[in-house]
Design brief:
N-terminal domain of MutM-like DNA repair proteins; single chain; 4-stranded antiparallel sheet; Helicase, Ruva Protein, domain 3; 7 helices; globular; about 270 residues; alpha+beta
């Protein structure tokens, strides 16, 4: 599932191409991806302009020029592609939005994901439960420590809890734990102040590095996009079962906890 780095990469790149361009055509191939009737969605969106693209956690919010919002959550397997009709990817699309004469934003893999049309108030209310942004202005080491020190349970369970810290999922929770030298199964109540400090630094370093590398999406956003997917080769432990740890050389282990897979290096990650 796309996480903060993937969605932030999309936000940055899309903002270069679609802002203030009139939406000239909307095609809906899967009405279940919407929250309103297909005809109403097409009528409401056609002729509008996107004036701002915002990311909140794993969501993108397209701010329309009439004050309404399109909220996108790609969920598992969702992708975006931006190009001309001649560039159309050989993938099934659920929604297609054309900007100007021929720039089309293709929404792919929205079997579980969605694109909802909401008022500004409805959009705010739908995301109100989300926790603090890990790289936002309101986050610092003290805030981070207070958040985690109030929690019990495993490190990974808390890191992926969107109501606590928003935007981190399976992949980057494991990468953050590795960077901090802690196992994803480590109990928060057993960690020291130094561990919390290491975790905070690791969280920032991993998320910034992976965002700058373009995230791990399998499909470039545009035909000339050389950035998206660049973090695939930067993961140290996630999806590296059996490979040698780049830090200690031990074999990376795959395990499962509460229905989530996790990866770690037993030689240099500890439970404390």
């Amino acid at each position: 599932m796309p996480e903060l780095p993937e969605m932030e990469n999309y936000r940055i790149q899309l903002s270069k191409y679609i802002l203030d361009q009139p939406i000239t055509e909307v095609v809906v191939n899967r009405e279940k991806s919407l929250n309103v009737a297909q005809e109403a969605f097409i009528r409401e969106v056609t002729g509008r302009q996107v004036i701002f693209v915002e990311r909140r956690a794993k969501h993108l919010l397209f701010h329309l020029d009439n004050g309404r919002r399109l909220i996108l959550h790609l969920m598992l397997g969702g992708l975006l592609y931006l190009g001309s009709k001649e560039d159309r990817p050989s993938r099934t699309t659920q929604i297609e939005i054309t900007f100007g004469s021929d720039i089309v934003l293709y929404f792919i893999g929205l079997r579980l994901g969605y694109l909802h049309l909401l008022s500004a108030k409805e959009a705010e209310e739908s995301l109100d439960h989300l926790g603090i942004e890990p790289l936002g202005r309101k986050m610092n080491e003290d805030v981070f420590m207070k958040l985690l020190s109030k929690r019990r349970g495993s490190l990974k369970t808390v890191l992926v809890n969107q109501d606590v810290i928003a935007g981190i999922g399976n992949c980057y929770a494991d990468e953050i734990a590795f960077a901090a030298g802690l196992r994803p199964t480590a109990k928060l109540q057993n960690l020291s102040k130094e561990d919390y400090s290491s975790l905070y630094s690791a969280m920032r370093e991993v998320l910034i590095e992976m965002t700058e590398a373009g995230g791990y999406m399998e499909l470039p956003l545009t035909k000339d996009d050389k950035l998206t997917g660049g973090s695939n080769d930067l993961c140290r432990v996630y999806d590296r079962e059996g490979e040698a740890c780049p830090r200690c050389g031990d074999s990376i282990v795959k395990a499962e906890m509460n229905g989530r897979k996790l990866f770690y290096s037993p030689g240099c990650q500890h439970d404390r």
